[in-house]
Please model this.
Amino acid sequence: MKIAILGGTRGIGRELVRRAAESGHQVTVLARDPSRLDAAVQGLTVVKGDACDRDAVAKLVADQDAICCCLGVPPSRKPVSVFSESISLVVDQIPDDDGPRILAITGVGAGDSRGHGGFLYDKIIFPLLLKRMYEDKNRLEQLLRDSKANWTIIRPGLLTNGPQTGKYEILEDLTGVTLGKISRADVADFMVSELEQPKYERRVVNLCSPRKSRT
Model:
């Protein structure tokens, strides 16, 4: 499978590059600074450019089976637009549902997952540091919902740098749920699994490590 990745130099995207390549897929990464890519991963194709540059995105998306949007930005109180701008450019290249799959990372706080991150996250971290970011992640989600593309929106819980375990919960109904932690490596594992064996086309999923059962 040919997999294109935006945001492949850090975080979930970096883990996805490794996981997809290990699974034998052809990986193409859009990067402003290709030197930041993991040198240990063999066989990468690199498109140098910015995720908000139309020509660079068009070059990345051409002849791909899947596009994975894993962009991230530092917390800021200033307006954020990179998520919606980049996904708009991707969607523009995919006129209908016969095109490549789109997997997009947002996170706990987007859409109806807001209020499911725990007291500290919901009441302090989110309003002080993440509100602007998630306003744009909401715009990203709406652009995908309004498109004809075959998308899956992925909202991980609180991210860690832990190992890939392959053990995590995939939730669509968050009633009564507080999303806990999940490693970036496990998010990448889910993404590759969903591309190889699709189960959540045009659906939104929330990911977290297995919760303790209540007795």
About this structure: The chain has a mean pLDDT of 94. Residues 136 and 204 are 17 Å apart (CA to CA). The two ends are 43 Å apart (CA to CA). The domain at 2-208 is CATH 3.40.50.720 (Rossmann fold).
